């Protein structure tokens, strides 16, 4: 068979049911193979490779399987790099296939030639090129194993055009199997002993590779031992936020009360999360390399242990195997007051201050917390607007939250479209800023073509709000480059055959949202936000006083 067809058959063998991408002449043989595989793989054609890569990344988050993205060489690959970077920082399994120049054209600066090993080397787990069609089964199997095992992440595979049109007698390799590391008994015992000495413990969870069973075991373990659970940046859906054990999220824009909680903790048990910039507030909340707090660090990748902070106890274990083992251990809780204090503070901070403008996002978030479906999926890109979905919604056990830990603008709408592809009958809500939305707003075309319609809450303040807030804080009265002149978003929605409404007063939201839920084409609800309401709070003092 043609190598391009073998590639498609190999994907089917690995359980692939969806792929996202923009077609290109460099991988026509793969597209031809997908034509024969329409009953097995859904090809979702996007409007930009960046949108396709964001969709694949969101698919990986939601399913636990590698999201598949296919793009053409050169500009197609560079456009898709934003999704690869997001998958790496977010620990999401993903495989990017890139059509490549012919093997006989290398190193001549051929049309759209790029050295992908060099280009993607720092932002992917593995980058390779298939030169021999007979090696397709081997490399596809390795790619899936690499993307899924250890710390999940992205793999990039270049496909020379002439290789794809070559003949091969090989057959696909069987579906890969991989195992998650379990904690060593001695290390687990040491972790339990240290945790039993604590009066102010804090359990922080994050990272990729969690299963539904692992998330349930986390709840059971926390309830059994009255443990306070916090989540790393944009991993809120790992823990039921409505559960009394949940004490908040520790990430960018962290509440000062959470910063103080991290400082005051005597034992921090970090489960499958990295000690990154957001959780440590730029590595200032914990002394480097040895924190004053006792540190228990468990991670699915041994490369994360001792990477920045030297733990008192290190556990090389996946989150699901770790929680399974922890359920068999016994703790002697002595921290009920500490946990309750954290929960009480979280419940206060969850209710944001009323905003000064006619559209009050604090009131809208209160309404959404009470009315979102029990299994709703919420997505967002990056910008100050994301503080509403990230800090002022509460995610119950069966709700999901998809946001880029990488801080990538434009991720929210593609992620919402991918969520509808995975769960077509599920309520999907995308939070977007006006600047953020326009990074990938053209993917409304993908939504319309594929019948994948989320509800988009588009917060319009006619500015790049995050940067404006920084400017006003550091360079008062010297604002530049952050004003945005926007299109008519309601007319834009109509152009794509999607319901659109403009909301200028808080009282209009409930009725508009009910109409959006009933709309067969989803909706864009444009919320006109007072430019003065750049953030939910005017200052850190304002947060503390709340």
Task: Explain what this protein looks like in three dimensions.
With 546 residues, the protein is of the alpha/beta class. It folds into three domains: 162 residues, Thiamin diphosphate (ThDP)-binding fold, Pyr/PP domains (Rossmann fold, 3-Layer(aba) Sandwich); 163 residues, TPP-binding domain (Rossmann fold, 3-Layer(aba) Sandwich), CATH 3.40.50.1220; 189 residues, 3-Layer(aba) Sandwich (Rossmann fold), CATH 3.40.50. Helices cover 38% and strands 16% of the residues. It is built from 21 helices and 18 strands. The strands form three sheets. The protein has a six-stranded parallel sheet with strand order 2-1-3-4-6-5, sandwiched between helices. Strands 9-8-7-10-11-12 form a six-stranded parallel sheet, with helices on both faces. A six-stranded parallel sheet has the order 14-13-15-16-18-17, sandwiched between helices. Strand 3, helix 4 and strand 4 form a beta-alpha-beta unit. Helix 1 crosses helix 2. The longest helix has 16 residues. The chain is globular, with a radius of gyration of 24 Å. The termini are far apart. The C terminus is likely disordered.
